[in-house]
Design a protein that fits this description.
- The chain is mainly α.
- It has one domain (about 5-235).
- About 80% of the residues lie in helices and about 0% in strands.
- It contains 11 helices and no strands.
- Helix 3 (about 45-60) packs parallel to helix 10, helix 4 (about 70-90) runs parallel beside helix 8 and helix 5 (about 95-115) runs antiparallel to helix 11.
- The protein is globular, with a radius of gyration of 16 Å.
Length: about 240
């Protein structure tokens, strides 16, 4: 990975970490497609490692607002999703995984634009947890299902609950990926170079999160994510 590529990744990871710590999601949707373009080996394990650090910070900062019961049901659903996602990573070639990653981004954007808002019943939360586990383990993007089912939450409650789910969920996914031989020393060393950037993103979110226009911010995330996904798709056929 060249210095220019590292700087590009650092910028997108900084923005993604800031958004993740501000509105509860964003790191995977932004960093996933860019990492797949620049350094495919870092997807999904590298993104998951970075997300683990960010979500740990969020849980510590917003722990008083998290919904433990809802998180528990979501994690129950995540278990089979993680197993299925790790199996996909083990058997699918990189090109197909990149196309799946791009498809997951576009699907998440489409559902968000359509305004689908399921009631956060126990069944809905468990189902969303399973979908998040599958998508997150296979592509590093597990935020859309949980954001959909927990969209009635706001502020610290959303960040804390999403953070707790993704912290435990990311550890589960990393364990499954490691068991499938997808977490190497090279991936860990490359990811470590980006960890300081995630810390800066989290710190910046503490100063600016309250001033964010959430709707406008989500719109920006949507546009950037769609562009990244489309570029990734085109790259697979050129």
């Amino acid at each position: 990975m060249s210095t220019v590529e590292l700087v590009m990744l650092a910028v997108i990871v900084l923005l993604g970490s800031f958004l993740q710590a501000s509105i509860g999601f964003g790191l995977g949707m932004l960093a996933g497609p860019v990492m797949a373009l620049i350094e495919p080996s870092l997807v999904p394990a590298g993104v998951m490692l970075l997300a683990t650090g960010v979500t740990l910070s969020i849980v510590l900062l917003d722990r008083s607002e998290l919904d433990l019961r809802g998180t528990g049901w979501a994690l129950l659903g995540r278990v089979p999703g993680v197993i299925a996602g790790a199996a996909l990573v083990a058997v699918l070639p990189t090109r197909i995984l990149n196309l799946v990653l791009a498809g997951v981004v576009l699907l998440g954007v489409f559902v968000s634009i359509r305004g689908f808002a399921p009631e956060p019943t126990r069944l809905a939360v468990v189902t969303a947890g399973a979908a998040s586990g599958l998508m997150g383990t296979a592509t590093s993007i597990g935020g859309p299902p949980m954001a959909m089912v927990w969209q009635s939450k706001a502020g610290a409650a959303l960040r804390g609950t999403m953070g707790a789910f993704f912290l435990v969920g990311s550890i589960m996914s990393l364990a499954a990926l490691a068991a499938a031989g997808q977490v190497t020393s090279e991936i860990v060393s490359h990811t470590a170079l980006l960890l300081p950037v995630t810390a800066i993103g989290v710190l910046l979110s503490r100063f600016f999160a309250r001033k964010l226009d959430v709707k406008r911010t989500k719109a920006i995330v949507t546009v950037v994510s769609v562009v990244g996904a489309l570029v990734l798709i085109v790259q697979q056929f050129v």
